[in-house]
Every structure is written in structure tokens, then in C-alpha cells.
Amino acid sequence: MALLPHNPNAFARSPLDRAGHHRRDEAWLATALAAETTRIVPFFRHRPFVVDDGDAVAVGWLGAHARSAIAPADARTLFLGLDAEGAAHFAVDVPDDAPLNDIGRFDDLRALGPRLSREELATIGPAKAVFEWHAKSGFCANCGVATVVSEAGWKRECPTCNAEHFPRVDPVCIMLPVIGEKCFLARQRMWPRGMHSALAGFIEPGETIEEAVARETLEEAGLRVCEVRLHSTQPWPFPHSLMIGAICEVDDDRETVDTHELESGRWFTRDEARALMAGKHPDAFCPPPFAIAHQLLKTWSEG
């Protein structure tokens, strides 16, 4: 594994070696799917299988032998990678949850986020994103013919025009505007009462990250960015984004919120930001630690 700086974000830094060179090796994949050491995590309707142990919850890994009992031979299967001991890990998209109801449950990954370990989130996050991509990409964007899955679930091919289709990743900038001892957070109408978070928006073709941060901040809050400091990145499988986090200095605090995009926005001091994260603010709260918005707020409030 690469020796990279610490990344504070959930869904980042999978403990598995993706071992992409095995994806085209059908014989190796067949052997791996039958190996006693192999582990499989079922997904049903894009929800991972988990098991409860008292107040704790964990990914419900099954042995390879269980695959035939929970899914047909042609069930969509994704090779996730190899662990430190060389054991293969797969995700399988099952058509029915009934065979596993007695030992665990399928649950929403976003809801599970605060309860699963960092390693578990980073391991199964790609499966959630790729399975959703498969569900929306059954036909060739070039000629309209039904595509077929290849390379252990990481590719779709068109049998007619030979076009190759790969899982999409949507780049999103997410930024915390700051000036002096204040930061700006906003809220959307659909969010729970009191929830405030960082600004965010998709990066458009032809934009740098910094340009996207400046454009989105101006569009959503009417604030002009004069400096951008990149913070960290986070794979976000809802459905398949790459969140690119930044803290941006703005030239004044006269916001003009775009009420088409947002419900409202407000400024918070460093002390208020710390109260938000601790759940002690009297009328507002922020996303939990597994969201990059929380990590942006944490970095700034502790600076």
C-alpha cells in the first residue's frame, strides 16, 4: 500500500489491495470465489448485509460457500480486493433478502456510516457505488444495445460497437467559507430542523477545483472567494461522488443566499462551531464525523 498522509474521512483508505491485475483473469477469479479464505458481503437493493452484536454492528461477511445459497450463478459479483493475508473479498448483488433474515439484515449505508468502522466503510463503499452504477448503465450510451459486465464487475462492454463503459465518479467541491473568526454554513429545506453544513456543488468541465469553489460559493451564498486551501478528499458512495474539501477565505461577510438552492445560511464563531460538533449548540447542529463537512469544520475551529 502507498505511504500517504493521514486522511480523516470515512470511506477513504481501504485496507484491501484492489489487485486490479486479477480482474481480467477469469480462472483466478473462479478459484478465488471457491477458496475457503474468501469473504463475500451480500448487497440487496444497494444495501449491505450487516449483523448486530449488542449495541455494535459489523459488516456481515460470509464464506465463499454461501454464495450458491443466496444468489444465482449469474448474480452480479464485484471483486473488492485482497486483504493483508491474501484472502479475496467480493460483494454480490442478491435478488432476495429472505435467505439471510435469520442471521442479519440489509441496512442503508448512510445510516450505518457512524456505526461501522473506518475500515469497513472503506471496504464496502466501492460496492455500493459500483452496484448503483450498474443498475443505471445497462445499455450502451453509444448505440443503445444492452451491455455485458466484465473485469470482475469493474467494466461494462457493448457487444455491438465494442464501446467500453467504466464506473463513473462525479467530482464535487465542498467548502467552508471563512473570514476572520467566523465561518459560513448553510442548510437545505429537506434537512432536519437545525442542521447546517458546508456549501457544495459539482465541478463543471473546464474548471479547476479552485475555480469551482469560487463559483459555487458566489452562486450559493453571494460570497467572493479570495483564497482556497485544499483540505482532503472523500469517496462518497451516494451515489458515486468524490468530495474535494476546501477551506476558502472570502473578502467580506455580506452573504446573499440563493434561496432556489438553499433555505438559509448563517455565520458561526469558532466557539459556536465547536459547540455544533459537540452537539451542544442551542439551535443548530452539523453533520457527523464521518462526513467531510464535519472534518472541515473541525480543522478550522481548532486552528
TrEMBL record:
Its EC number is 3.6.1.22. It comes from the Bacteria. It is an enzyme of class 3 (hydrolase). Gene3D superfamilies: 3.90.79.20, Nucleoside Triphosphate Pyrophosphohydrolase. Keywords: Hydrolase, Magnesium, Metal-binding, NAD. Its cofactor is Mg(2+); Zn(2+). Residues 167-291 form the Nudix hydrolase domain. GO terms for molecular function: metal ion binding; NADH pyrophosphatase activity. PROSITE patterns: NUDIX, NUDIX_BOX. One of its GO terms (cellular component) is cytosol. Signal peptide: none annotated. It catalyses: a 5'-end NAD(+)-phospho-ribonucleoside in mRNA + H2O = a 5'-end phospho-adenosine-phospho-ribonucleoside in mRNA + beta-nicotinamide D-ribonucleotide + 2 H(+). Pfam families: NUDIX, NUDIX-like, Zn_ribbon_NUD. GO terms for biological process: NAD+ catabolic process; NADP+ catabolic process. Belongs to the Nudix hydrolase family. NudC subfamily. This is NAD(+) diphosphatase.
